[in-house]
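BUG-227 | component: ligand-complex export | severity: low

The export step for S-adenosylmethionine jobs runs without errors, but we want the raw record kept on the ticket for reference. Input record follows.
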Amino acid sequence: MEENKKNRPIRSYVLRQGRLTKHQSDAITEHGDELIIPSSNDLIKWDLVFPLKQATSILEIGFGMGDTTAEIAKTFPQINFIGIEVHSPGVGNLINKIKEYELKNLRIIQHDAVEIVDTMLADESLDGIHIFFPDPWHKKRHNKRRLIRAEFLHKIAAKLKNNAYLHIATDWEDYALWILEEFKACNEYTLKTENFHKKPDHRPYTKYEKRGLNLGHKVWDIIFLRS
Ligand SMILES: C[S@@+](CC[C@H](N)C(=O)[O-])C[C@H]1O[C@@H](n2cnc3c(N)ncnc32)[C@H](O)[C@@H]1O
């Protein structure tokens, strides 16, 4: 990972503290052992984690508050999902949703996804990756902080099975165009449709997206296929 001037890695998120409600904190305390996969250097064995064996495996990076993640997992009970997020309020909120919907097909990792991709995901193990509204770094001067860069696209390509998909959505046009530029440096993918894709029905509106739409933003969905 790149290092900044103070010799700390440049991360795609900023950890904010102190907005954890009691409901969220209780959820983590009561159900964390069951639903959170601890970060480690061991590869995830999906068939040991989930009751449903040999199922389609989808990873979501940066689920935010997780409402959309839970909705998707509820709609597709035959698919196993792992969501990665660093913020505790989102982790607590998603645990509450998993319990409310009685989901058996969704687990959480609370850690930097860039490191998890390196350490916990086997090559050619995923059928799909969701990255919805990845980060707030829409200004060009912040491009080093952007999660979606050629280097990261290369890394996650190795984790996808042949013909598996990578679905990214953003509400910043510059970021959308940047993603297409970064993609050009990666020969592991083809675009599913030319440039942008119509929002698929299986992607409900996310919390961050709704805020953007209320501000008058447009949304760009991009779907790559591992080739
Ligand atoms: C702009 S929010 C969008 C959240 C959600 N997908 C939505 O659309 O409402 C981006 C989220 O990605 C998370 N994130 C960014 N970089 C991350 C990383 N490297 N590892 C894990 N989570 C990350 C942030 O913590 C944040 O919650």
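Assignee comment: Attached the raw record above. The beta strands are 56-61, 79-84, 106-109, 126-132, 160-170, 189-191, 220-226.
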